[in-house]
Amino acid sequence: MPLPESQAVLLVVSQLGRLVRPSLLTAALLLLLRRYTAVHPPTWAVPGLALAVLPVYYAVRIRFASWHIQRRAARLGAALPPRLEGRKFGNWDILQSLTESFETDYLSETLFGYMHTIGHSFELYILWDRAYVTDDANVVKAMLATDFNTWVKGDRFDGCVRSVLGTGVFNSDGDMWKFHRSMTRPFFTRERISHFELFNRHADDAMSKMRARLAAGYAVDFQDLVSRFTLDSATEFLFDACVHSLANVLPYPHDAPAALRANVSRAASEDFARAFAAAQEAVNFRVRMGNIWPYFELLGSKTQAHMRVVDAFLDPILKAAVEKARVEKTMPSQQSKEEIGEDETLLDHLVKYTSDPTVLHDEVLNIMIAGRDTTAGTLTMAVYFLSQHPDVLRRLREEILSKVGPERRPTYNDIREMKFLRAFINETLRLLPAVPWNVRYPVKDTLIPSSDPEKPWFIPARASVSYSVHCMHRRKDYWGPDADAFDPDRFLDARLHTYLTPNPFIFLPFNAGPRICLGQQFAYNEMSFFLVRLLQAFDAVALAPAAHPPADRVPPAWRGAPGRKGVERMWPKAHLTLYSKGGLWVRMTEAQNA
Ligand code: HEM
């Protein structure tokens, strides 16, 4: 697999080379003058002028670039989006504040603040690099759907993620993306996505694990538990090689005896999960840093070591699948590519298209990233909301008990009919969407809708435009004055027709347009199934604050702050996907009817 960040040093050297090119050219010119003409600048003038030319050159260049962009915008009858102005040279203070707030503040808080003051689409001009940010549903609609062909994930995003994702459906564009998408799509048919037997086995494992730990008197990290559930389900569903992470000992909480906590040995599957998460964290940092990320990896790649662990886990599974396909190819009953066999895994399906280990590796990792952490993160947030809203939990249980009863396994039709369950999942995805931020790049100079219908905004080719569904999902002008409140009924009552039905692009947890999430129905089924099983078994959930690692607890200073920051009792963070900092430590009460 190519490792672009191993070329970080080369990239930086070439960037520096480009940066000092005017000085080198000036020095060369002066030396030529000295040698071949009667003009003899003094020796000190060569380095002096070579250095002095740099600020002048860049001042002129920056001015010219701004003028040029203005001209291009004017030619298209457009205006420039408002710019966020900092106080320090190069808007360094904005970079500092964004970086710091990412570490210490509530999710997207700083950007949310900017959107309130400057507007819902604006320009970030940091170190003379233009980037744009939006939470405007009309802009997002254009990017994802109506003007789809103009917007790509692009080579800048690809450069950031390639050392983790390789080339797959998630980070490719154009024909390559079509190839990956068409290769994967047949797998997500209704029959495949409603194979509940597999979820059932893993959900049962998760419940018994949780029961045992709770019975021993300790809180459970639900985020860890459900990540194991989705890891076991995904590895079985995708390549029929379940890693059985649920068989390993669960972590003990912060308030358990130290000896107990120290004794939890880490299994290979956990190393895989941790390494995978760490690699995504590194990638997210790169995406946030934009063009300058290679400068942070001059001393070495931040993903390479993690990916070695991931690959050590994955490669034997891939080899076995290719070998299995090789053996089966000789058999007469070989199916056509499009037909998906009853027990066929994604990997079985992919090896019909290719035996190239890199393509298989990348595609499988893409689907793992796309599908596993998103579902685990959403279930974590769902249980968090249950802990804060016992009334919602009670209503959900009522629906579950009346439709499915206390023990039976839910069917596809049961799940389809559980309207409150769907509304509950949607409300979770609204306030804490699994993919809170995303980015696209226009392939050419383009226009986006502005606040003035007569004058769109201009976006230059190849500039990054980050869009936040997280911020969009909380806008009061889109969702009403109670937008910050957790209330699943907004997906069922008159508010649905007032807000969402006329403007469906205000709710995009799965994206929209041709690149809409391939696993959306699969995810709804998996999450619904798990929640039904969970609430058949338990009838109360409470956070266990003392069990939470102290450094990861919600800062007391947040209490009473405006918006959700003031009411949140766990710390939502995002790498590529959303998670709760330090886990989600809970206690649950077993239902009497279970
Ligand atoms: C709560 C669960 C999920 C959420 C919120 C979610 C959300 C998303 C989002 C926002 C995207 C668009 C990413 C982008 O274009 O930048 C996406 C793409 C994708 N998702 Fe999901 N996803 C979920 C579950 C799943 C599952 C379970 C699978 C598969 C098993 C899956 C497979 C995919 C794939 C393959 C893509 C790439 C589509 C493309 O680029 O053409 N997702 N998902």
Describe this structure in words.
Helices cover 53% and strands 9% of the residues. The chain is globular. It is α+β, with helices and mostly antiparallel strands and 594 residues long. The strands form four sheets. Strands 1-2-3-9-6-4 form a six-stranded mixed beta sheet, sandwiched between helices. The protein has 23 helices and 13 strands. Helix 2 packs across helix 3 (45-75), helix 11 (222-239) packs antiparallel against helix 16 and helix 13 (268-289) crosses helix 14. The protein has helices spanning 8-19, 21-36, 45-75, 92-104, 109-118, 137-146, 154-165, 174-184, 190-193, 196-215, 222-239, 258-262, 268-289, 304-329, 346-350, 357-388, 390-403, 412-417, 419-431, 469-472, 476-479, 494-500, 520-537, and strands at 83-84, 121-126, 129-134, 151-152, 220-221, 437-442, 446-448, 457-459, 464-468, 538-543, 572-574, 578-580, 585-590. The chain folds into three domains: 1-75, no CATH class; 79-154 and 436-473, 2-Layer Sandwich (Uridine Diphospho-n-acetylenolpyruvylglucosamine Reductase, domain 2); 176-435 and 509-590, Cytochrome P450 (Cytochrome p450), CATH 1.10.630. The structure holds protoporphyrin IX containing FE. Residues 169-170, 181, 184, 367, 370-371, 374-375, 378, 434-435, 438, 509-511, 515, 517-519, 522-523 line the site of protoporphyrin IX containing FE.
